[in-house]
Each structure stands twice: as structure tokens, then as C-alpha cells.
Amino acid sequence: MWSNNSAAPFLLTGFLGSEAIHHWISIPFFIIYLSILLGNGMLLVLIQSDHNLHEPMYYFLAMLASTDLGMILTTMPTVLSVLLWDRREIAQHSCFTQSYFIHSLAIVESGVLLAMAYDRFIAIRYPLSYNSILINSLVMKIGLGVLMRGFVSIVPPILPLYWFPYCRSHVLSHAFCLHQDVMKLACADITFNRIYPVILVALTFFLDAMIILFSYILILKTVLGIASIEERAKALNTCVSHISCVLVFYITVIGLTFIHRFGKHAPHVVHITMSYVYFLFPPFMNPIIYSVKTKQIQRSIIRLFSGHSRV
Fold it and tell me: Per the database entry, which stretches of residues form a coiled coil (predicted)?
């Protein structure tokens, strides 16, 4: 039984019950994907071309934009294939690889937000030592550490997927491959694959969120110690963009977690919609937040479009 069915491709799923209008649903998805590509791509161009943005804060922002682009380029091909052309089949090895990148990049994004919190903490807590502490080599080491944590920590639960036998239904519940979706189709002992992700989430997403919260408590304590109200507002204003991105990311994570844990009786479309919100909303909002809230980015956009990128 395993030998007959085990190597068969998996079947991706779009919006159940709405297959007839998938081509219409694909239009907003295409617009959102295009907006994400243009928005994050523009941030990378600005940071690369404008010397005024060659600072640690913007290097971390470039990492965030790159991570968002990576996530979109990982999920976009299968989502649009299902919605536009009803191409549901995906080879097993392609599915496992996609799952690896989706989960790795999610952990990387959480790590980048943590690194950005560290940057804001140093900028406000030790403003005179900021440039001597956050030198380029340290920024590179932090970036490499964030990448290594994301891409190495997810290997243990993904590797077994390659040799598990799959004798049950090969139908997945999304238009992309998620570890928790794939492992349920395995005809094998998946105890490790159930336990490890819970521990990993606690040591990455949850721990990162706690450290970010603690860093902002210390930042707030420092800001309240500043005598001038104007200086207080100026210091806090430098954190608004980052706080907004953190809230967008973790609210979607919490929302998706609650739906999966407590929304077992919720309609399938609610689960699917929430998963798309999780994958699309942060990458869509991050460039908008930084463009609206950061004056240096606004000036850089003006310089770029007026043809004076090196002022």
C-alpha cells in the first residue's frame, strides 16, 4: 500500500467551495503580491543607493524587506498556480522544500524584529556610544546569527518528511505546503514532529516577543528620564515604525495560533483566510509603515524620483 501511493504528488487546495471564482480571487492576490514586491524592492533600492541610509537601523530594515520578499517568492508560485490555472499537484520534494523555506523565513523575520529592537534599545539607551557599539561587523554577525537560527533550527522536523511513507490522502489544506499539514498525511510515528515545533516556537517567536517587550520597557524607562518633553517625543518617534511592524507580525501570529487551537469548528474559509493574512499582511504593511513613519525614507524616495539619490 505504501509503495503504491507513497511517492504520489500532493494536492494543494485553494478556497474550498469557491473553485468557480478562483480566477476572480486571483486578482486581489496578484495586486497584493505585486504591491509587496514593489514596496519591499523599493526599500532595498533606497537603502542600497542612498548613503544617508547606510546605518544599522536601515541595514536591519533591508534584512526585513529581504525576508518578506523571500516569503512571497516562496508562496506566490503555488498560490497563483492553484487560483489561476487550477494546477494543484506538487511533487513531494518540492513541497518539503517550500515548507522548509516558509518556516525558516518566519523564524528569520521574528529574529530580524528582535535585532531591530536591539538597535532601538542601543540608540536610545546609549546614544553617544551608538556608532561605536553597532559597527558594521556586529551588524553582519547579528544578521548571520538570525539567518543561521532560522535555517538550521527548522531542519530537524523537515528532514523526516523526506523519508516518511504517505499512504493516506495526499490532499493538503492550503495552496502552499506547511509542515503541520504535511506531517498529518504521514503513515509513521510523528511524535517528534509534533513536539519539536512547539518547543521551537517557544524558543523563537515567544522568547523573541518577550525580549522585545522587555527592551521596550527599558526604552520607556530611559525616555521618561529625559527632562524635555520634545526630546521624549523625538526619541519615541524613532521607535514607532518598529513597534508597528512588531504589532502587525505578532498579532497575525497570535490570530493564526488561536484559529488553529480554538477554531476547530470555524468554517474552512476562516482558517484559510487567516493563513493568508499571516503570510501577506506583514510583508504588505512593513514598507508602508516605514515609508509613512520614517522621514529619512520619505526624503530618500523624493531624492530617488527627482534623480538625486546621493545628496
Answer: none
